[in-house]
Amino acid sequence: MSFLKTFIIFVDNLNDWMGKILGFLIYPTMFILVYEVIMRYAFNKPTIWAHDTSCMLYGAHFILGGAYALRWGAFVNVEVFYQRFSLRTKAVVDLVTWMLFYAFVGILLWKSVPWAWASVMVQEYSNSPWGPPVWPIKLTIPVAATLVLLQGLTKTIKDFYIAVTGRELFAGVATEVTEDN
Amino acid sequence: PSQAIAKPSEVINWKFQSHHTPGALSTEYVIPPFIERVREMSGGRLNITLHYAGELVDYQEVFPSLQANMIQMANTSGLFWRGSIPVGWLQSGNLPPFVCRSNDEFNELYHRRGIDALIREGLAEQGIHFLGNHNVGNTYFWSKKPINSVDDLKGFKVRFFGSMSDTMEHFGAAPVMLPHPETYTAIAMGTLDGSGTAWWLYRDLKLHEVCPYFIGPAWQTPQGMELWVSKKAWDALPDDLKAIVETAAVAFTKDYADICWMQEREMFNKSFPEWGTTYIEWGKEDIDRITNEFSLPYLDKIAKEIGPKDPRVVKGIEIIKQFMKDYGYID
Amino acid sequence: MGIGLISILLFGSMLLFLGLGLPVAFVLGGLAAIFWGPESFFIIVARTYSMMSTTTLVACPLFVLMAAVLEQSGVAEDMYEMMYRWMGSLKGGLAVGTVIVCTLLAAMSGIASTGVVVMGVMALPAMLKRGYDKSLAVGCILAGGVLGPLIPPSIVLVLYGTIAQVSIGGLFAGGMSAGLLCSSLIIVYILIRCYLNPSLGPPIPYEERTNWEAKMTSLKGIILPFLLIVSVLGSIYTGIATPTEAAAVGAFGAMVCSAIHRRLNWQLIRNSAYATIKIQGFMMWILFSAQAFASVYMGMGASRLVIGLVEKYEIGWWTMLIAIQIVWFALGFVIDAWSILMITAPIILPLLPIYGFNPLWLGVLYAVNTQTGYLTPPFGTMLFMMKGIAPKSVTMSDIYSSVVPFVITQLVTLALCITFPKLITWLPEVLFG
Ligand code: NA
Ligand code: NA
């Protein structure tokens, strides 16, 4: 058990840190576009890089932010019926339905690895007039899929424990505490 | 008309992913007849379904989707992957202004002097079977204010693509990169002074409502795209079906060039007076200046920078320059 | 397998897994992954990367950031305090104010989710705090929020204009008319509802009403938000910024506002960033998995379903018009506005000259009709966004039931626009001839 607990805590912390660092990407995204507006309007010198760059930052922000959102239970579900299930029923149902999660994110990982790797191999750059490298942004997809898979795995472990024992793995410890910033 | 068409023994289904929305020239006049032609000639053995822009995948994922054989066919452009496929730099949409100056010249350069053959070789290595470059309309630009010569480009805020954008910048314009769907609003509100691409987008995006000046002659005659087939799908075709697709592809190329040319004339002659569009045509002096000051050095730059990645690019640029010499466009 | 059976299986599985409580993104993405077979696996990657490369969507996190900063710095709270003081005697006044702000937000942004995420973050806590009924508070934000694609700027209308060959300026003018009509109907509904039952939107207690000092002090609360709205709208309509860039201007402006309030500190910067990535994370994962789902449905032949419906019957003008509306509305239950256009445009547009439908009018009807789809369960994107943003006390059932009256106001708008086409065509005719 302690190995599983360590694993879960490790994944939680990993995704926490990822989310907290990546969250700050929103500020350069904002400043770059404000800069573009000023340069174009006040100086008639639009950049060729602002929209490309802000778009890449935005893409990395949300794809990698997925694991952080999942770690904090932000992925919306319809709990109209679900909320009436007992703890154990919920766990059993989730063990079944989350197979779709593994199909989805697993295929995302499986198919994005060779796709991103091919881009790395040729050092692919964008077709835009600025032409920045695009392989780093393509690499974020397999990385994001891995992080989300790990986070999903922690849920499955917890569900499995509940299904077998009827108790929560982290008994007495709220796993979804509010953030204590 | 109950002609005796043999009952299809085995039906092959292909998905054709277009870059264009319903109602565009290609999806209205070119792709459906192509599909019908293939269906008829094959007696229903090759059944192709058309998917509009972004239905299955967006334009930038067409290449890996063909490689994965998720879609089997697309009319697309190597320009979009010039960052990973070197022969993409030879694609006609990527050429600088005033290389070809008529559709016949384009046919000569691409289909007879061997550019298509170089691109075909390059794409074959990438799992793509290439069926040739085709005309998707001539490239012009349009503006809120009159631009009577190269010198008037100074400070002109314009949305353009690829090498067209580089040309604008070279002559003192300020190319602006904006999301495509925002072009109309941006011009209407004055964020942009104009934009440019194939002429029919001036008509279809209603840009004539905000840009009363249309500037020619066309910078690219024509802007081109390419017909790509997934190599896996191609190799799985029996020889007779391969011949049918090739034949239909030739008709595709001709249909596209014809409809582009006829409707462009109609726009100039009938629509411009209705819209109140003023057509400004630059003279030989401006054309020669752009060709010598920008296009020629740009071609040399491609050969120098991309050549080391694929010698076909150097070969292609040589062919293009020889062609321009033969036609008297450069010395 | 026919497309009818495919549709039943696909949407049946969707309902089943949604009902069993699997997160929405995984229901849509998972079904997209397994439904079509191995050849379509790559669709998941392609759709993800497409969404990452859609430049206009950059506006999305920036508006979330703007809302988060305004909320955490207390600027939003000050604004609601002012509204409460001044419109306090009006039952439902804050909900009315919220709808008006939503309408302004719709004029700032070209994408659909702006109003819902911004007001879900800013307005919902403020209304709940003042005793507003949960259902009314959630519903009015959702109803006002979906005005985004109708009121210009609008990406959906640009797309329709390009496809149907209609003046985009004209569509914008028509969308503006329909949007204002819709927004007025929502306000009228709120006022009547709260007049009949004041506990839904309680007015300010009587003894506090005449406190002019508090009223005047609270006025300060509106100055900064007002300047912010003026500068964002102004930057778009004077051509300084595009709608996407205007979102960055708005977020930056919000930070300036909180600096003026002397509340811009490290904690605010950090918490706003965390709130933004959490909302953005789940929201975009829903959006790209929904796109993959729609692609799979289209790839398996969704358009054949519609073709079959249209070709089977020879029908008259009214029947055809109503049939088109029903098809759009029905598709709105399960897929988004853009996919609906791709599926139906090739079938419906050739009918325009035959039936003599005015394409501009039909385009605005399309926008009104499909924006209702954002609100209709089971797949209503905005409902899920709201669920992710709202306090935990707001359940999905609350949200589903909150939208019912507002789906009706949307349908009334649609019916009015159908019955009195002038409502839509008058402004474009005046402006563009
Ligand atoms: Na809008
Ligand atoms: Na819906």
From TrEMBL, chain A:
Q: Which InterPro entries match?
A: DctQ, TRAP_DctQ
Q: Which residues form a coiled coil?
A: none
Alphabetically list the UniProt keywords.
Answer: Cell inner membrane, Cell membrane, Membrane, Transmembrane, Transmembrane helix, Transport
**GO terms for CC?**
plasma membrane
Reading the lineage from the top rank, the first entry is Bacteria
Q: Where is the Tripartite ATP-independent periplasmic transporters DctQ component domain?
A: 30-159
| Primary localization | membrane
UniProt-annotated location(s): Cell inner membrane
Record flagged with keyword Acetylation: no
- Write out the similarity annotation: Belongs to the TRAP transporter small permease family.
Its name, as the record gives it, is: Tripartite ATP-independent periplasmic transporter DctQ component
From TrEMBL, chain C:
Q: Which InterPro entries match?
A: DctM, TRAP_DctM
Entry keyword set: Cell inner membrane, Cell membrane, Membrane, Transmembrane, Transmembrane helix
Superkingdom: Bacteria
Provide the membrane topology annotation: Multi-pass membrane protein
Localization of this protein: Cell inner membrane
Residue ranges of every copy of the TRAP C4-dicarboxylate transport system permease DctM subunit domain listed in the record: 11-423
> In the UniProt record, does the keyword Cell membrane occur?
yes
Q: Does the keyword Chaperone apply?
A: no
The protein's name is TRAP dicarboxylate transporter, DctM subunit
